[in-house]
Amino acid sequence: MPVIKPKVVIDYNNSMNAVDKQDQQLSSFPVMRKYSKGYKKMFFYMIDVAIINSYALQKKITGKKQHFTEFRIQLAELIESVVLPDYPRCGRPQQGPSPVRLQALHWAHFVQVIPPNPKKKNPCRDCVVCKTKKKKNETRWECSKCLVALHVPDCFRVYHTTKNF
């Protein structure tokens, strides 16, 4: 015996087709995090909806059938290749350790011996991390990029991985 659907269910299915597809595609890429603030969830949801809408427009305009995952990957590669202009910074230069030391773009920090100078053949300087802890310890090692005196390996790791050492 055939099952008869109520008219309400038929109307719902006819009008919600695109929304259901959109929700189905969004569930494949769960970006939502457990944020304490609801506005962050809304922001990421709107980004996801914009990506789905751009995918639908691209499919309609080009007529090319492309999988949604491939579209997202191409979009990510496109965004990654954009080079932002380096605007001059306003205000007073920052005092203290630079936040550049924590950024992935500026990796390649290596240990080197503090080079000799005309006064000393084997110069030593105070370790920056120990100095903040009010310890007076001299070291012969420094970071080749930051040119900051640090003990190896503990103070070197702490300086390059911790924001407030």
Features:
165 residues, mainly alpha, two-stranded antiparallel sheet, 6 helices
How would you sum up this structure, described in words?
- This protein has 165 residues and is mainly α.
- The chain folds into 2 domains: 7-81, no CATH class; 100-161, no CATH class.
- Helices cover 44% and strands 6% of the residues.
- The chain is built from 6 helices and 4 strands; from the N terminus they run H-H-H-H-E-E-H-E-E-H.
- The chain has helices spanning 7-15, 17-28, 38-62, 68-81, 128-132, 154-161, and strands at residues 111-113, 125-126, 138-139, 141-143.
- The strands form 2 sheets. It has a two-stranded antiparallel ribbon with strand order 1-4. A two-stranded antiparallel sheet has the order 2-3.
- The protein is elongated and about 100 Å long.
- The chain starts with 6 loop residues before the first helix and ends with a helix.
How many individual domains?
2
The DSSP helix count reads 6
Strand order of the largest sheet: 1-4
Record field, number of beta strands:
4
The helix/strand class is mainly alpha
Strand content: 5-15%
Give the terminus-to-terminus CA distance.
74 Å
Percent of residues in helices: 40-55%
Low-confidence stretches: none
Please summarize the sheet with the most strands: 2 strands, antiparallel
Q: What Rg do the Cα atoms give?
A: 28 Å
* SSE string, helices as H and strands as E: HHHHEEHEEH
Note the overall shape: elongated
Q: Report mean pLDDT, rounded to a whole number.
A: 79
